[in-house]
Amino acid sequence: MKSAIYAFSGDPITVGHLDIIKRAAAVFDRLVVAIGVNPNKHYLFSQEERVEMARRSVLTLPNVEVKAFTGMLVDFAYENEIDVIVKGVRSAADFAYELNLHNLGESQNLGIDTFVLFAKSSLAHVSSSAVKEIQLEQGLIQDYVGPYVKQCVEAKLSGQYIIGLTGEIGSGKSYVGEQLVALAKEVGLQAHSIELDQLAWQIQSDLQEAKYASVRKQIAAVFGSGVLTENGAIDRKALGEIVFGSQAALEQLNAIMATPILVRLRKELKNKQGLIILNAALLVEAQMSQLTNYNMILLQVDGQVQQERLLARGLTAEQIQRRLASQYDFTRKKEILEQAITDSKQGQLWIFDNTKATKVEIKKLLEQIRAYFKM
Predict the structure, then answer these.
(1) Active-site amino acid positions
(2) Of 128, 257, 302, 352, which has the highest C-beta tally within 10 A?
(3) Beta strands in the chain (DSSP E)
(4) Whether pLDDT at 110 is above 70
(5) Mean pLDDT of all residues in the chain?
(6) CATH number belonging to domain 159-373
């Protein structure tokens, strides 16, 4: 059986590391991912944390194992009867550095060879330091690291524990979000509920930056000038009559709004710590569950109670039916979230019945979330 070793600090492990791991695992029968300690480096994560992040990242690769090591890599390889060291190279400077390490390793006369894999050009900009720099500015790192690692980086660098809150229209998302924040504060825990629908409303109404004016014009171009008010804002009632009657129209609107909402979300997240609740009816439909690292509260509600709540908002029976038809129902949302958690090997789904939920029940939900995040 041909074995190899791929060693790096993993502070944190990135999709660039994972690409090298997957390619090496396809070549060798057994691949050891070795997480080391460089005495000249200052690490954000402990070695134990870095090993766990790497372990969680390679769960789908049966011939890959993760180990911690100290000292010279060639010694570690020799003691584990591994005679090939895999190296990932992103640039000429990397190649020169790794060539020097190869020559130093050869000087120890242990018979350890080097196997070089060049990084894909699409991943050459990805690095552990880039992940940390982006997170410090509250940027989006989901394209740089896996969801479990993203969760760890957010907690370590920003003190943020992000969770999604979703459900069908009329399931009481705002109420549950507000109660979770209030109950968290009672036990001395910082908590914030960010309603993505509110961010969308700001973009469609009164934000003055040039880009958001362009977004409003784009919405009018797609859905007609009738969705614009006299001052250039979006008439959300008029827009709602269009998009909540057509799945295709709703998807068009989601595509237009996705990037602007993410930009505003970054601003909302800046300098916030503790439990961060992202509240949106369409989190699943808009494919934004990854923002929460697949940690989601899904609200369930009795159909009759749901109808009564929506009628109390002034919606007609026809409008209620159209809005319900335009989004996934509880069962569909649950199926998609469960599949995402299974596929990513990361996340937690809390099903919460909010038909007549009491503060005691919401407090129990908060306690479960705190235990999960170890807050």
Answers:
(1) 17, 41, 90, 128
(2) 128
(3) 3-8, 30-35, 64-68, 84-89, 113-118, 160-167, 191-195, 274-279, 295-300, 348-353
(4) no
(5) 91
(6) 3.40.50.300
